[in-house]
């Protein structure tokens, strides 16, 4: 669930995300604080709170059926984009290297405590199953 780590880092570093309130809140958050914040339905948050949504919320209907033609994975984005380009004859300018690295040198798993893993495993159960993810 690397996207949660990226989301926290990106929101903490820049206000250009549209999450001005979260930008301020997250300045003092540890990753575990962030996971707790996601779980707390009473916590302050931007009205369009889509940070707490599962990835599958964006690609599945209300019955859990995938309703998009292509799903590109963040962890294989470059090769997925190349395959998409080739399959549909698209003209895409591809970056030579990843653009949104947050450069800590840590693996995303290093951010998760055992308790965080338990919370996210429940919270994102559908994503874990659909995308065959594990910690």
Short descriptors:
globular, 44% helix, 135 residues
Briefly, what is this?
The protein has 135 residues and is an all-alpha fold.
Write structural notes for this entry.
The radius of gyration is 16 Å and the shape is globular. Helix 3 packs parallel to helix 6. It is built from seven helices and no strands. It is 44% helix and 0% strand. With 135 residues, the chain is mainly α. The protein has one domain.
Secondary-structure blueprint:
Layout: H1 2-13, H2 20-25, H3 31-39, H4 56-59, H5 77-88, H6 114-123, H7 125-130
Helix pairs in contact: 3-6
Q: Could you give the count of β-strands? A: 0
By DSSP (H or I, 4+ residues per run), the number of helices equals 7
Anisotropy-based shape = globular
Radius of gyration: 16 Å
Helix fraction by DSSP (H/I, runs of at least 4): 40-55%
Q: Strand content of the residues, in percent?
A: under 5%
Main sheet properties: none
Order of helices and strands: HHHHHHH
């Amino acid at each position: 669930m690397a996207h949660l780590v990226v989301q926290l880092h990106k929101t903490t570093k820049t206000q250009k995300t549209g999450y001005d309130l979260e930008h301020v809140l997250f300045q003092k958050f540890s990753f575990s604080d962030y996971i707790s914040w996601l779980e707390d339905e009473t916590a302050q948050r931007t009205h369009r709170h889509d940070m707490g949504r599962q990835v599958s919320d964006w690609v599945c209907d209300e019955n859990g059926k995938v309703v998009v033609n292509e799903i590109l994975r963040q962890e294989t984005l470059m090769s997925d984009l190349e395959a998409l380009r080739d399959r549909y004859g698209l003209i895409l300018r591809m970056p030579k290297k990843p653009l949104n690295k947050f450069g800590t040198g840590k693996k995303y798993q290093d951010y998760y405590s055992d308790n965080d893993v338990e919370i996210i495993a429940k919270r994102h159960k559908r994503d874990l199953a659909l995308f065959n993810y594990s910690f």
